[in-house]
């Protein structure tokens, strides 16, 4: 079919292209000649629609939906929706599948060979259908299926930082997909396809508004709009959440205070929350950023985060709603090491939160840097459910022009050992509730989604959205496994294509760390917009918004001493963790400058001194990008023209910006180290002054 | 092919779907079995690509490109690019085709039956190719072709009001398609498809930035980005233009003044313009808004518009660039009838502008209202080239949720008689240069284009973009003809579909006039954002931004007396025009309240009094929308599901908003007329207070 645009990326990983392996195609066609899917609930109808579209695309023919059992049939449903499913001996598996999981088995019923997709709930059925379609999209054998799958975390969330005027704070893929002006009456097809995409990876909750919240979202007019979105999402098992502006009782409620212990305030929120549930019976709850970066909060009234969170929790509890209270706090006034502040504020509150409150903790102690150690709050609040917050949008990771696959970053944190209950107390076990017996478990990703046709700007940004969903479902999936299945669905199944792209993806995060912030450097990006490097910047109104605060380069060395000799941030970790990081000889070099101020002449494991190692890493980072360029270019014949060219252009931008990071950081740090860049390396082609004078008044994502 | 999105509208009118009439398909296949298109210029390659894509889609098979003449061949080129074209006896027709036109003939050459697409220039060839594809898309007979076509205006322009942060002033289809951040290195496929769409309708110039201009676009960094766009557009015959911030010499040039008679300032602009041409050798020139709504301009230095425009003109002339100087001016301080101010400022300057300056005049004297009389500047400046500026984006016409086809509005102005040189001195003749012998001729439309997938938000918004191009090429095309060819290309050729949609389109503008501003009402919309009705509004900082200034309703009647008894605005027209408008008995009723303060009891042609007529019109407007809804619903089986549902939802919004306009305007005006809404009409279901209290803090298009 001719088109002006080849593959524009809109379909994400749900492309359902004809299976291009003829043996497999024939196997698939033989295995699924019809579908038996009774039931008319919205989720079952969504499952039916998806199967219709998916099978027609993958098999290249219409597959009939029948009302009687037949050979080579896909039999789909719950014991309640389908007597055929009810009659299958699946109770063991189904009990493991739980409320949202599913069972897929190749079996026989009344002498017919069938594949059953079974679940306890309609949404479980839909998840099973997406899983089955994924098997075919990734060209797996479907002859002897015996799958039982259940999600490891209960709340699997995408958080949008979308403003009501459609700007997106830290958004780099266009503007908000929520067109509030035309809601509730105009339902953009995107809303539906967004829900499909999320359901296909198990996302079951969406926070639609920015954590830097606007109270107007809670007015009657906007709640009607939110309800219209909730109606679109409901069949796909997705609940809607809002961000709660703590001062809303003043701003839209005409009260004089927002004190969480004030009876009028509490009543106002109770009424407001009841009103929300009248519009949206399955409303999920609130995500709240309070007393952080200028946002209002309970501390404005000398109350604690627990006082604030519990006020919401009480009003939400009768409706089964939850509060996600963000631990990303640091005070405007405090001279304390910024990294220590979240722990200092929240650790004492462990056990003080109502049981429908979760504390949402960023993966690291700072703010979504290319590499951070895990947040010390993980492992420090055994009596409190903790959700993890990752950032899919690449605020610090090259916006939407850098290819970086985040699964290795996410996994690094999940696999980190908190030693809360001895060895093996991983962050993953904190999150899935198994370590402390928590029932409220969750994983959230800050959306990298905008109204660009392909949703994420960079075609590979889609992989990070995909990863979040897959890991929230099953944090034991490996990065390679996720990359592999994403590539197959998104680009195709040919071996050189899959192998090469998987390799690119798996190396991409370490490449970025190297060309941006090697060896534990952090927060040395441009001010405000966070675009590009600015390690020299020292003009921010707050000390801890300045790169110089974080790298502390001087004539002796570089790095932030957070040992007992310094800010003693390391005391917030379990002794085993602390010990490893505190000793400069056991501290992994990738975290070195997070924790130590290290002499330029310090000998690294490579035998190079610190300065030479820094040079080595920055140059290696750029080299890795150049390798990715070559790898990508080798795929020209295997990728559709539009996306091939897109990624090629983007890699060229990435290479250019990697050089910019390398040159400007090294030239700047050289003013302290006074040592030469080894002559074997290509010479920076611009001066430090040149880089310092670059200005980006309209860099995207400032939320204006 | 399965897809998550059916027809998403991205392809605009260039869909190239398989011809669904089997007789015609067979005729077309027989007539075009191969293409002979030698040449490798960028425009010829674009023509080749388009033919490849178009023919493959329309004919459902690959058509081969050959290097020798053959029977049933499409022979394409210029006498210079193709010896076969050179050998055809087409010199008469080609001389009529001029620089941009083309000739398409069915003919015979060396005993082969061929269709020749010939032109004097490569861009003429591309235009001819688009015309030929249009013939097939609209299912015309191509057996005896004898087309000679040349554009009637020389500059055919789309003006974007796009800001550097990607907000679009008065944009309702998402945000700017120009991603300045990722330019110049990342070339979005949209830029190419945008150029294709424009070339297909003869648009040959694009102003990419807002008339409320930012000087930064003229900095080196941004000029590189602009040059990258110019490179994309060049093969499609499209020149790029910028808006010129008059105070740029101060803001980015570090001068103390922007006085157009200051030698340093003149030199600064000359250097800047030379620099632009170094980057963009075919740069088109500047569009300038000066001394209007707070923009800087020559009057800041007590100079005239001519002084300002000529400064730019002088610097542009060596490069063949032009200045489009906007006549949309009205002073912040002047108590004069706002409608009179443009004429008052510009008429005395007739003959004072350099010959590469055109004055760009909005179609009417106010600001793109649903209906305005033609601007009195048309017919008043015989020594000055005048371009017309239409507004495609629906600032005052229901944003992107109302279906309104603008061809009737555009044609109404084109057909208006200025009487400049006696009867028949139409605006069209002013514009095409024939009335006053102008060589510099042009027509511009303010873009309704954004980064919504379908470009214009409302699928029918595409028709207005299409119309602008077609009318700029040939202002004699009728509204019906344009509607007909657009529907066929955009939705399909089935007769009930074409007939019904054409009917809807042709009635839509009058419907809107009726439910918004019947009988010559104007400027009674919401303040600032211009969304919805607010005839009661009187709080603007300037009198002439207030609806009450324009409708002047009181206990006696309603309307603005612009006769000799009032502001005498009518004196700016030729006596013949003035006479017709000035006499309340000959003034066409659709312009009545533009020119007269009319008693509520005045008897209208219908026999109803003015109040009753007002009621009648407002109710008729809503009724027309309801008729459109029924008509559209009848097409469910003939339109793809996605666009059918889109338009259905949008018509429901339009109906709701039409009722809002009707009710709130009538309830408000009733407070003056003190007469009842006839009881046979449905009663307003809300009170005036309800409507007055509506607030839209995030209405789109405010450019923030």
TrEMBL record, chains A, B:
<dbReference type="Pfam" id="PF03648">
    <property type="entry name" value="Glyco_hydro_67N"/>
</dbReference>
<feature type="domain" description="Glycosyl hydrolase family 67 catalytic">
    <location>
        <begin position="136"/>
        <end position="455"/>
    </location>
</feature>
<dbReference type="GO" id="GO:0033939">
    <property type="term" value="F:xylan alpha-1,2-glucuronosidase activity"/>
</dbReference>
<dbReference type="InterPro" id="IPR011395">
    <property type="entry name" value="Glyco_hydro_67_aGlcAse"/>
</dbReference>
<feature type="active site" description="Proton donor">
    <location>
        <position position="293"/>
    </location>
</feature>
<dbReference type="GO" id="GO:0045493">
    <property type="term" value="P:xylan catabolic process"/>
</dbReference>
<dbReference type="GO" id="GO:0005576">
    <property type="term" value="C:extracellular region"/>
</dbReference>
<dbReference type="InterPro" id="IPR005154">
    <property type="entry name" value="Glyco_hydro_67_aGlcAse_N"/>
</dbReference>
<protein>
    <recommendedName>
        <fullName>Xylan alpha-1,2-glucuronidase</fullName>
        <ecNumber>3.2.1.131</ecNumber>
    </recommendedName>
</protein>
<keyword id="KW-0858">Xylan degradation</keyword>
<feature type="domain" description="Alpha glucuronidase N-terminal">
    <location>
        <begin position="12"/>
        <end position="132"/>
    </location>
</feature>
<keyword id="KW-0119">Carbohydrate metabolism</keyword>
<keyword id="KW-0624">Polysaccharide degradation</keyword>
<dbReference type="InterPro" id="IPR011100">
    <property type="entry name" value="Glyco_hydro_67_cat"/>
</dbReference>
<feature type="domain" description="Glycosyl hydrolase family 67 C-terminal">
    <location>
        <begin position="456"/>
        <end position="679"/>
    </location>
</feature>
<comment type="similarity">
    <text>Belongs to the glycosyl hydrolase 67 family.</text>
</comment>
<dbReference type="InterPro" id="IPR011099">
    <property type="entry name" value="Glyco_hydro_67_C"/>
</dbReference>
<keyword id="KW-0326">Glycosidase</keyword>
<dbReference type="InterPro" id="IPR029018">
    <property type="entry name" value="Hex-like_dom2"/>
</dbReference>
<feature type="active site" description="Proton acceptor">
    <location>
        <position position="395"/>
    </location>
</feature>
<dbReference type="InterPro" id="IPR037054">
    <property type="entry name" value="A-glucoronidase_C_sf"/>
</dbReference>
<feature type="active site" description="Proton acceptor">
    <location>
        <position position="367"/>
    </location>
</feature>
<dbReference type="InterPro" id="IPR017853">
    <property type="entry name" value="GH"/>
</dbReference>
<keyword id="KW-0378">Hydrolase</keyword>
<comment type="subunit">
    <text>Homodimer.</text>
</comment>
<dbReference type="GO" id="GO:0046559">
    <property type="term" value="F:alpha-glucuronidase activity"/>
</dbReference>
<dbReference type="Pfam" id="PF07477">
    <property type="entry name" value="Glyco_hydro_67C"/>
</dbReference>
<dbReference type="Pfam" id="PF07488">
    <property type="entry name" value="Glyco_hydro_67M"/>
</dbReference>
């Amino acid at each position: 079919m001719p088109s002006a645009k080849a593959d524009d990326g809109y379909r994400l990983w749900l492309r359902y292209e004809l299976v291009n392996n003829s043996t497999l195609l024939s196997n698939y066609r033989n295995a699924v000649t019809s579908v038996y899917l009774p039931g008319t609930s919205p989720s079952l109808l969504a499952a039916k629609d998806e199967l219709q579209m998916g099978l027609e695309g993958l098999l290249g023919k219409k597959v009939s939906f029948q009302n009687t059992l037949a050979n080579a049939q896909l039999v789909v449903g719950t014991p309640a929706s389908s007597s055929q499913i009810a009659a299958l001996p699946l109770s063991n598996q189904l009990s493991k599948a739980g409320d949202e999981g599913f069972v897929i088995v190749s079996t026989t019923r009344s002498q017919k060979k069938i594949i059953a997709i079974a679940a306890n709930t309609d949404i479980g059925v839909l998840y099973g259908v997406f899983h089955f379609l994924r098997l075919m999209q990734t060209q797996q054998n479907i002859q002897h299926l015996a799958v039982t799958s259940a999600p490891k975390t209960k709340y699997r969330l995408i958080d949008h930082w979308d403003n009501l005027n459609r700007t997106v704070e830290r958004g780099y893929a266009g503007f908000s997909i929520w067109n509030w002006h035309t809601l509730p009456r105009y339902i953009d097809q995107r809303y539906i396809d967004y829900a499909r995409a999320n359901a296909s990876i198990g996302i079951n909750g969406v926070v639609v508004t920015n954590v830097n919240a606007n109270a107007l979202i809670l007015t009657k007019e906007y709640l009607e709009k939110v309800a219209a979105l909730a109606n679109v999402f409901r069949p796909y098992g997705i609940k809607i959440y809002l961000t709660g502006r703590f001062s809303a009782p003043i701003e839209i409620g005409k009260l004089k205070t927002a004190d969480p212990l004030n009876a009028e305030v509490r009543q106002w929120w109770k009424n407001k929350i009841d009103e929300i549930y009248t519009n949206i019976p399955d409303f999920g709850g609130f995500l709240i950023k309070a007393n952080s970066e200028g946002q209002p909060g309970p501390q404005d009234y000398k109350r604690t985060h627990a006082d604030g969170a519990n006020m919401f929790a009480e009003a939400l509890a009768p409706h089964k709603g939850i509060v996600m209270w963000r631990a990303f706090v640091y005070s405007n006034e405090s001279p304390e090491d910024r990294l220590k502040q979240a722990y200092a504020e929240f650790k004492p509150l462990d056990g003080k939160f109502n049981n429908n409150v979760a504390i949402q903790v960023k993966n690291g102690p700072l703010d979504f840097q290319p590499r951070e150690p895990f947040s010390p709050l993980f492992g420090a609040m055994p009596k409190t459910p903790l959700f993890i917050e990752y950032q899919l949008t690449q605020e610090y990771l090259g916006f939407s022009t850098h290819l970086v696959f985040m699964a290795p970053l996410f996994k690094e944190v999940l696999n980190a050992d908190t030693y809360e209950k001895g060895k093996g107390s991983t962050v993953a076990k904190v999150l899935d509730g198994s370590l402390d017996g928590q029932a409220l478990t969750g994983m959230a990703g800050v959306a990298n989604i905008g109204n660009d046709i392909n949703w994420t700007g960079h075609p590979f940004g889609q992989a990070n959205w995909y990863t979040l969903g897959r890991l929230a479902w099953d944090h034991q999936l490996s990065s390679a496994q996720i990359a592999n299945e994403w590539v197959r669905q998104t680009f195709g199944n040919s071996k050189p294509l899959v192998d090469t792209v998987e390799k690119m993806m798996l190396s991409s995060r370490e490449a970025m760390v190297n060309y941006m912030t090697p060896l534990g450097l952090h927060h040395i990006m441009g001010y405000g917009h966070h675009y590009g490097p600015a390690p020299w910047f020292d003009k921010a109104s707050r000390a801890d918004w300045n790169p110089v605060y974080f790298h502390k380069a001087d004539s002796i060395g570089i790095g932030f001493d957070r040992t007992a000799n310094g800010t003693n941030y390391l005391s917030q970790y379990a002794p085993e963790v602390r010990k490893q990081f505190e000793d400069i000889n056991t501290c992994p070099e990738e975290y070195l400058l997070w924790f130590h101020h290290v002499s330029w002449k310090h000998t690294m494991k490579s035998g190079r001194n610190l300065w030479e190692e820094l040079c080595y890493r920055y140059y290696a980072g750029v080299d890795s990008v150049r390798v990715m360029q070559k790898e990508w270019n080798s795929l020209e014949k295997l990728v559709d023209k539009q996306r091939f060219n897109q990624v090629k252009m983007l890699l060229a931008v990435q290479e250019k910006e990697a050089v910019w990071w390398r040159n400007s950081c090294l030239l700047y740090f050289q003013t302290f180290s006074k040592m030469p860049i080894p002559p074997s390396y290509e010479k920076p082609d611009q001066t430090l002054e040149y880089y310092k004078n670059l200005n980006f008044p309209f860099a995207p994502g400032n939320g204006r």
